[in-house]
Amino acid sequence: MQKDTTKKEEIIGSETILEKIKTKTPWIFGKKLRKPKINFPKLRRMRISLPMPSRSLSVIIILIVLFVLQTGVVYLIVRDPPALGADANQNPIFIYLDINESFIIEGIVASVLIIFCSTGFVLLYQASKYVYNKKMAVSILTIGALMIIITFLLLQYMIAVKMRTI
N or C end: fewer C-beta atoms under 10 angstroms in the chain? Predict the structure, then answer.
C-alpha cells in the first residue's frame, strides 16, 4: 500500500473555511482565483488607569455624604429655615414646636444621633467577630446596645417635644 505523496499547493492565507472543513471539495473558481484572507488588526480599547483610593478613605467619604444628606441639606436649601429660635421671653429654643418645620441645629443634632445609632449597630456586628474572646464580645455588645438605646430615647424625646406632649 502506497501513501499519497502528492502535496497540496500551499498559498498562505488563501485557504477558505469551506476548504478547511471539507478538503475533498475544491474551490469553486479553481486554483487561479482565490478568495483573499484578510487579517484585521487587533485593536485595543484605550483604558485610563486611575489610582484607587484606599478602602478606609472610601468609607469615610460615604459616611460624610450620608451625614450631609441626613442633616437635610435639601430642606435647608429649599426652605431656608433659621438656625435656632427664641420664645416670647427671648429664651433660646433648639427644637421647633411644629412637626413640619425644623431649625438647622435640630437637623444636625438628629443626624448626629442617627450616626451614633448606626455606630451602635456596627458595634453589634463587630461583637460577633470575637466569638472566642467572650469578655471582649460582651463589652462591645453592651456598648453597641447602649448606644442604640440612648439614641432611640433621645430621638423619641425630640419628637415628643415637637408634638408638645412633654
Answer: N
Residues 19 and 8: their CA atoms lie apart, in Å, by 12
CA angle, corner 4, sides to 3 and 7, nearest 5? 135
* 147 Cβ contact list (under 8 Å, min separation 6): 116, 117, 119, 120, 123
Angle at 30 between CA 25 and CA 33, to 5 degrees: 130
Q: Are 120 and 144 in contact (CB under 8 A)?
A: yes
**Cα(142)–Cα(150) distance, integer angstroms:** 12
The whole-angstrom distance between residue 86's C-alpha and the CA centroid of its chain comes to: 42
**Total residues found in the chain within this entry:** 166
Backbone angles phi, psi at 136, to 5 degrees: -65, -40
Q: What is the mean pLDDT of the segment spanning 109-117?
A: 90
Cα–Cα nearest to 113, from 74, 80, 156, 53: 156
Could you give the 3-state DSSP secondary structure of residue 92?
A: strand
3-state helix, strand, coil in the chain (%, to 5): 50, 0, 50
Mean pLDDT over all residues of the chain?
Answer: 81
Quote the pTM value: 0.61
